[in-house]
């Protein structure tokens, strides 16, 4: 704010003292005068001494010397002197030469109170010429007109200062009459100095994330647990139906669950790991219901109970899995001499084509021949017989067995 130059006008009213002369009762030769006067021989009166001329550098600095009756004053150079007219009612004897009385007016801006000059408060007495938009500030002997904080003086008016031009705010500045305020972008809040902006941790202030919240500079991010997708609103988490994405997640059946999925197997199978199904061997685990005299034969997804003696007439059982047709029986002449029953498990992981087991004739008679064939159970054509030598063949498998599992 520029300081305005105030012209100080000090009006000094000087009243001339009456020409001092000797009282009639005294001798005509009396020539003493009071301080500040000297005897004028021509007029035979006491004449004022002009100290501003007789005293070298009577006033120092920026002060100006003003002579008045009986003395002088040091006043600002802007002060002016107004000489009052001669008082009409005073006689020449109104101010005796020997009198000690003298006139000492106060400078402009002061008023006499007793023997002292006291500052006049022009602001309180409404003696100033400040504009309504300005504040009157009283000073010693005068006053100044100042603009309120946030305003600058242009000419005689106070104009609002646009503090936003000076980039006081880190983010946004809003100018208001006489002041300004700082605002922050979303995700930030004002710091203690009301100018800087600091990040708001929305996660600690109740961010609307359904599952996980991650604070970032000026904002936050919502994330979901494994098995969930972030919703369109950016806050909620929706379960992922993994089973709908692929039909190969599980060997048998996929079951969707909140945030995950699980695989189930059909009856007679148990889960191997998390996705595969493995046949339950009820015969080994003892969970079958076969009666005495029956053998438990495990099959994929279950078991079969077969009679221990599978020899049918005219065959007789000679061992646990062998039936012989005695040659003494006429009906045995056109039948195989022996039948061997063998139950075995074939795993689905077995590579194909491959031999399963080898069949060997126990005895070979001269002039006889041996043949091997599959009598039943190969409706799908999955098995084959391969001759391995004289009286020997191998049972093999062409294709992978479809043991499990489809819905």
TrEMBL record:
Keywords: Calcium, Disulfide bond, EGF-like domain, Extracellular matrix, Glycoprotein, Repeat, Secreted, Signal. InterPro entries: cEGF (IPR026823), EGF (IPR000742), EGF-like_Ca-bd_dom (IPR001881), EGF-type_Asp/Asn_hydroxyl_site (IPR000152), EGF_Ca-bd_CS (IPR018097), Fibulin_C (IPR055088), Growth_fac_rcpt_cys_sf (IPR009030), Nephronectin_domain (IPR052235). It is found in: Secreted, Extracellular space, Extracellular matrix. It comes from the Eukaryota. Residues 119-159, 160-198, 239-278 form the EGF-like domain. Pfam families: cEGF, EGF_CA, Fibulin_C. One of its GO terms (cellular component) is extracellular matrix. Its main location: secreted. Residues 1-20 form the signal peptide. One of its GO terms (molecular function) is calcium ion binding. One of its GO terms (biological process) is epithelial cell differentiation. Belongs to the fibulin family. PANTHER family: FIBULIN-5, PA14 DOMAIN-CONTAINING PROTEIN. This is EGF containing fibulin extracellular matrix protein 2b.
């Amino acid at each position: 704010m520029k300081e305005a130059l105030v012209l100080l006008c000090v009006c000094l009213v000087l009243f001339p003292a009456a020409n001092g002369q000797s009282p009639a009762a005294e001798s005509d030769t009396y020539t003493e005068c009071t301080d500040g006067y000297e005897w004028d021989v021509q007029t035979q009166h006491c004449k004022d001494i002009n100290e501003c001329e007789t005293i070298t550098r009577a006033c120092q600095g920026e002060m100006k010397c003003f002579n008045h009756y009986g003395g002088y004053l040091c006043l600002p150079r802007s002060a002016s002197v107004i000489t009052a007219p001669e008082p009409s009612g005073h006689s020449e004897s109104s101010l005796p030469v020997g009198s000690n009385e003298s006139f000492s007016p106060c400078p402009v801006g002061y008023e006499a109170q007793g023997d002292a000059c006291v500052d006049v408060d022009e602001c309180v007495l409404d003696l100033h010429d400040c504009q309504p938009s300005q504040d009157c500030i009283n000073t010693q002997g005068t006053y100044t007109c100042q603009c309120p904080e946030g305003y600058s003086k242009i000419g005689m008016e106070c104009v609002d200062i646009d503090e936003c031009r000076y980039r006081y705010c880190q983010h946004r500045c809003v100018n208001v009459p006489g002041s300004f305020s700082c605002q922050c972008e979303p995700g930030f809040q004002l710091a203690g100095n009301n100018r800087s902006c600091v990040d708001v941790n929305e996660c600690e202030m109740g961010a609307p994330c359904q599952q996980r919240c991650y604070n970032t500079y000026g904002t936050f991010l919502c994330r979901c647990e494994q098995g969930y997708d972030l919703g369109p609103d950016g806050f909620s988490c929706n379960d992922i139906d993994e089973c709908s994405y692929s039909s190969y997640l599980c060997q048998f059946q996929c079951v969707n669950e909140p945030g995950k999925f699980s695989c189930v197997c059909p009856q007679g199978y148990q889960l191997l790991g998390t996705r595969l199904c493995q046949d339950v061997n009820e015969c080994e685990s003892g969970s079958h219901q076969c009666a005495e005299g029956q053998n438990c034969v495990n099959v994929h997804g279950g078991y079969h109970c077969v009679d221990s003696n599978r020899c049918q007439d005219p065959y007789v059982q000679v061992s646990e899995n062998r039936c012989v047709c005695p040659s003494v029986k006429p009906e045995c002449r056109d039948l195989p001499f022996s039948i061997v029953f063998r139950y075995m498990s074939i795993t689905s992981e077995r590579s194909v084509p491959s031999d399963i087991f080898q069949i060997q004739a126990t005895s070979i008679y001269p002039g006889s021949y041996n043949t091997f064939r599959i009598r039943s159970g190969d409706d799908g054509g999955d098995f084959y017989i391969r001759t391995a030598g004289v009286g020997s063949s191998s049972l093999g498998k062409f294709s992978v067995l479809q043991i499990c599992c489809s819905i």
